[in-house]
Design brief:
single chain; mainly alpha; 10 helices; 0% strand
Length: 310
């Protein structure tokens, strides 16, 4: 039979308290001393373990920006830091970046991403659509930077992704108010993304190195991803050298072109590498969200608005 609160207080042997009758200042001081002595007796008779409550193992007591977004799997310590990252990664991130590159290529040519790729003609509609995309994606990317403020590596990657959405938005807005005869070229905004690549690769490489030092299954995944992308870049470099050898002459301009080709390939695959490295460390290859799903898919969907430029 459960013990009720009243029955519990009746069964507990409470220390007998003596109460003096205060009549003057001396008896008042005596009362204070007796109360202090009785408090000490109670503390010794009933240790703190019966009144202390265990803290719940949850993150509800943390600020909203510090709460976790845990993907399944993963045992490394850095995996805990990755829980703040809200932007697409894994195979969803790869698909997202493929669509982003496709949009940027079409908009740079002042063409609609919708086949048969007509010339952009709906200036006001495209301007509103692309502005809405920029205003919706940039704050969510900045929110990820704030959430990951405890990890400088993830801050750099988040800054990179923020610069990417800014580059795409500025290119789309530029294309919506331009035509093919304008002297301005939307591809000019790729300079901004180039800075983002340099910043982000520092963070991604640091993540990979940290995971390789920690070891485990995630480290093996990082080795596979890094080896695959390193092999791809080596293949591009080898093809460039073979072409130069077949050409028969090697000039300084040819060396510059090979270097630019390798750097261009690096810029294209860098985002894919970051997506898969984060997925390898998180041991969550799809990258599908498990918390803040609305934020995740709003970002993904708003980033696709320029696909409907006409």
């Amino acid at each position: 039979m459960p013990v009720t609160r009243g029955r519990f207080f009746r069964k507990v042997r409470w220390p007998r308290l003596s109460w003096p009758k205060p009549s003057n200042l001396t008896s008042g001081l005596s009362l204070a001393m007796v109360l202090y002595a009785n408090l000490a007796v109670v503390t010794q008779a009933y240790p703190s373990s019966i009144v202390s409550l265990p803290s719940p193992q949850r993150d509800d007591h943390k600020p909203l920006l510090a709460r976790a977004v845990p993907p399944p799997g993963g045992n490394s310590s850095f995996h805990q830091e990755l829980q703040c990252y809200l932007l697409p990664f894994g195979w969803i991130g790869v698909i997202s970046h493929l669509l982003t590159y496709y949009q940027m290529i079409c908009l740079g040519l002042i063409r609609s991403p919708i086949p048969p790729w007509p010339k952009l003609s709906c200036g006001v509609c495209d301007l509103m659509l692309n502005t809405a995309s920029l205003l919706a994606t940039v704050p969510l990317a900045i929110w990820t930077i704030v959430r990951c403020r405890q990890s400088w590596e993830l801050i750099l990657v988040s800054v990179w992704m923020t610069l990417l959405v800014i580059t795409q938005g500025c290119m789309a807005i530029h294309a919506s108010v331009s035509d093919e005869d304008d002297s301005g070229n939307p591809y000019f905004w790729l300079i901004l993304y180039a800075f983002g690549i340099v910043i982000g690769l520092v963070g991604v490489i640091a993540i990979a190195v940290k995971q390789l030092r920690e070891g485990g299954k995630e480290a093996q995944n990082v080795r596979i991803v890094t080896g695959s992308f390193g092999g791809f870049l080596g293949f591009v470099l080898l093809v460039g050298v073979v072409i130069l050898c077949i050409h028969g002459k090697f000039r300084s301009e040819d060396g510059i072109m090979v270097a630019l080709a390798v750097l261009g390939a690096l810029g294209l695959v860098a985002a894919f590498y970051s997506d898969l490295v984060i997925a390898a460390v998180a041991d969550h290859w799809s990258g599908a969200p498990h918390r803040y799903k609305a934020v995740y898919w709003v970002f993904f969907g708003a980033k696709r608005f320029p696909l409907f430029s006409l």
